[in-house]
Amino acid sequence: MKLPSAVTGYGAEGDTDKLPMAIAARPDGGSWLAWLGTNGKVYLGHLGCDDKLTGTPTGFTGIDLQDVQADKDGGVLLLTRKGDCGDTPLCGGTSSPCNTTHLIRFDTSGKLVWERQVTNLTSSRAGYDDGARFTWWYQHHGRLATDGKTFAAYFGVAITVRNGSCSDIHEGDRMQVVSAGGALVSGHKDAFEVGCSHAWTSRIVWDPRTGHYVTVCATDNNCRIARPNPYRTVAAGTCDGTLFGGDLVLAKSSGYWTAWSQGGKTRLEHFTSAKSDKTVSTGAATSHPHLVTYGTGRMLLTWQSGSAIAAQAYDSGTGKTAGAKFTIAAKDHNYTAFKAYPDGSVAYPAAGSSGSSVTIARVLPLS
User: Taking the mean position of all CA atoms in its chain, how far away is CA 107?
Assistant: First the structure.
């Protein structure tokens, strides 16, 4: 499918690189497709049920795209904008840029309703000032979730700490909840200023059964897949440069499944409060697995396989395989997410044949 503007980030798949695209399921069966343009804009387009672009996309100021989430009134984007580091000296090294991350609320026509910064830079607090929480080049990706009334943004963040006459910059993650009207929800039970540190692959899901937003990270704090704020180990890993989190989904009856990889081998872990109570060795040889809810009582694990994507469905209660492994004719990206749809299908925005095209990979429900 041809897009009206080029996409930034094709071919770059590192955890510090820009994310090219994200997709979200609309309640009517269509989609919102967001992509990062080459001109300082994040674009949002409406896809019909045939996964084709309809109407004219909306452009929002943004230098990096994180995620998109839909609801009956439109949806929200998570994106990054240029910020200011200020003039406080660093104690050593460099850490620029000092950017800001924003939640952008749009209506059913894709037009702006409100926007809210979820980092904390202001006209009087620059990135190198003590207490700043900003977005930099390092480990900055994020994800969105909603309970139908509020929106939660969970993302990597830079942490500024004054050290005498200069500042040190650390890295962790941050979760902020925003109301339907665009205000930060003060004191929300699941939000935190900083959770894991150092952290990467921030993942979040809303659990209507418990009334909580649930988050997991990969962290070099004891080298593990963990729940943040406070730390609780889900699965023990090793800090050898091959520890990566995948995605997080609801289990069939209670608890959650998360995919993760160590040494290029993917596991599925089931947990309820923290420590995994069931491990599934999947046989998927990848550092970057994707996991998504797939119809009723199932989940779909996908991973890069040559120039295509391999996929295997699992029962989200028992963790047993459901059906045979199959191949999706689309290009994988380390940090792009599959999204679940009301009809039980899942969709994935993959790179197209050119820098201004996209392939929507659709997996229909398993019978």
Answer: 21
Q: Is 74 inside any structural domain?
A: yes
Against a cut of 0.85, is the pTM above it? yes
Nearest to 141 by CA among 256, 52, 15: 15
CATH of residue 270: 2.130.10.10
In sequence order, the β-bridge partners of residue 34 are 22, 44
Whether 297 maps to a domain, the answer reads yes
Q: Along the 367 residues of the chain, how does pLDDT read in single tens digits? A: 999 999 998 888 988 899 999 999 999 999 999 999 999 999 999 999 999 999 999 999 999 999 999 999 999 999 999 999 999 999 998 888 999 999 999 999 999 999 999 999 999 999 999 999 999 999 899 999 999 999 999 999 999 999 999 999 999 999 999 999 999 999 999 999 999 999 999 999 999 999 999 999 999 999 999 999 999 999 999 999 999 999 999 999 999 999 999 999 999 999 999 999 999 999 999 999 999 999 999 999 999 999 999 999 999 999 999 999 999 999 999 999 999 999 999 999 999 999 999 999 999 998 7
Q: Is residue 14 part of a domain?
A: no
Residue 27 lies in a domain: yes
- In the sheet that holds 74-81, the strands lie side by side as 64-71, 74-81, 100-106, 112-117
